[in-house]
Design a protein that fits this description.
Length: about 200
């Protein structure tokens, strides 16, 4: 074979090797699969609300005093009316929350300006009995109580008290048919009581 033919064949072989080398540049892959699962959410709830009627404060422990006196009972200085609501606390999932009771507003009126409204609450066991360390009094509109999953199953007792205070001087402003000179009975409207649970972490 002549030298020129050998050189040509060598060139073809070299080209084939180069192409073969380029074709071998690949990557490997492997895949393993793990089964997924179901994700469920927890809960933060106040359940099973039960409320008494409005009763004259001091008669809350009397089972016979269940009538709703609001709108029928005529208040005079020194009168306190109270309403009690209970809720079941349900917490599922690891979280911390706060409980608050907001002070309801009374409409701006001759009688409304004389009334004081005080909400409070306490935490009870599932049997409805205050447990040691769980009795919590809350100042009007400002109180909060922190709780977590361990408190699920306990009860919240919220009490709202409306009072026409007995003062130390004569003040007939809230005295119907006398105070405002309109010769009409004085009335006041109370807003709703709001109890709120709010997650904090």
């Amino acid at each position: 074979m002549r030298t020129s033919v050998k050189a040509a064949l060598a060139g073809v072989a070299g080209a084939a090797l180069l192409l073969g080398g380029a074709g071998s540049l690949a990557y490997w892959d492997d895949k393993e699969t793990e089964a997924g699962g179901t994700i469920e959410s927890g809960t933060l709830n106040l359940l099973d609300q039960k409320c008494s009627g409005w009763v004259v404060d001091g008669s809350l422990s009397d089972p016979k005093k269940t009538e709703d006196l609001l709108g029928e009972f005529l208040v005079v200085p020194g009168t306190k009316l109270a309403k009690t609501c209970t809720f079941d606390i349900k917490v599922e999932g690891v979280l911390r929350a706060e409980l608050s009771v907001d002070e309801p507003d009374v409409d701006v009126s001759t009688l409304g300006n004389e009334l004081t409204v005080t909400p409070a609450f306490r935490i009870l066991t599932s049997a409805g009995v205050a447990s040691v360390g769980d009795d919590v009094a809350v100042a009007a509109g400002t109180g909060t109580w922190s709780f977590d999953q361990a408190d699920s199953g306990k009860k919240l007792e919220a009490v709202i008290t409306v009072e026409l205070p007995f003062g130390n001087a004569v003040d007939n402003d809230s005295n119907s048919l006398v105070g405002d000179g309109t010769n009409a009975a004085l009335k006041a409207v109370l807003d709703d009581l709001s109890v709120t649970v709010t997650q904090k972490s």
